[in-house]
Amino acid sequence: MRTLDSNLEEKRAAGEAAADLVRDGMVIGLGTGSTVAWTIRRIGEMVDWDEDEGIDILGVPTSYQAQELAISCGVPLTTLEQHPVLDLAIDGADQIDRNLVAIKGGGGAHAREKVVSYSARWFVIVADASKRAEVLDRPVPLEVLPIAASLVERLVKKMGGVPKIRQAKMKDGPVITDNGNLVVDVDFGIIEDPRGLASELSALPGVLEHGIFDNVDQLVLGPGKVIDRR
Fold first, then answer.
1. Would you call 53 a catalytic residue per the annotation?
2. Quick one: DSSP state of residue 141?
3. How far apart are CA 132 and CA 148, in angstroms?
4. pLDDT tens track for 159-206
5. What pLDDT digit, counting tens, does each position of 109-161 carry?
6. Which residue among 16, 45, 68, 113 is the active-site one?
7. Domain CATH number, residue 107
């Protein structure tokens, strides 16, 4: 039986193991979430060594949360405008299937996360074992223009989905993304064809981005536990 402490240790082990992929001189996409937070902390330690041993890297954060953590850990930051091609992007996932297709967006940052991941030469998901699944079945987050919320809800219902506008926990009203949009979580049940569903969602008017990521190159679960895309 997995306990809270064991789950935390798995997250830490996976996150720190992913930092081993970082090399001196790299420009890295820094993802959002509790597991990749350990990666960012570890990278900060790697940067903070003395002048002879510390690495020289730059990070591109995917969210305000990732930006603040990186700054607090001493990781130097840059932007995609300054460095449009990244060497590596490391991020977390809400769920990832046997083919390394992931669902992301639990933190509402999936639009920026996708831009950063596609800007990288190598995209790595870091996760604990609880995030693995044979087939995806978690709700898919959509970042939606506020004016299009009702339209998107109607359209995804026609696709067999059950939409729900994500509500904030610490304030009244809906979650607002860093881009000023709404998040609509859509439950499609078991997703047999995630790539096909991704194409359908991308075509919906008013959907800025969805949380299906089919560009994962590698999954890191911990030290020595690495799975490459088939």
1. no
2. E
3. 32
4. 999 999 999 988 889 999 999 999 999 999 999 999 999 999 999 999
5. 999 999 999 999 999 999 999 999 999 999 999 999 999 999 999 999 999 99
6. 113
7. 3.40.50.1360
Q: Which residues pair with 95 in a beta bridge?
A: 103
Report whether 14 contacts 222 (CB < 8 A). Answer: yes
Question: What is the distance between the alpha carbons of residues 153 and 174, in angstroms, rounded to a whole number?
Answer: 15
- The beta-strand segments (E) located in the chain are 27-30, 58-61, 88-91, 95-96, 102-103, 123-126, 140-144, 162-165, 182-187, 207-210, 212-213, 218-222, 225-228
In this structure, are residues 55 and 22 in contact, taking their beta carbons and an 8 Å threshold?
yes
Cα 177 to Cα 52: distance, rounded to the nearest angstrom: 41
- How much is the pTM? 0.92
Q: Which two tokens stand for residue 61?
A: 């954060």
Q: Which CATH number does the domain housing residue 170 bear?
A: 3.30.70.260
Burial 182-220 (b: 16+ CB within 10 A, else e): bbbbbebeebeebeebbeebeebebbbbbbbbeebbbbb
Distance CA 173, CA 170 (A): 9
Domain extent, residue 78, equals 4-133+214-228
Cβ contact 91:125 at 8 Å:
yes
Measure the CA–CA gap between 142 and 130, rounded to whole angstroms: 23
Mean pLDDT of 50-74: 89
Question: Which 3 state secondary structure label does DSSP give 189?
Answer: coil
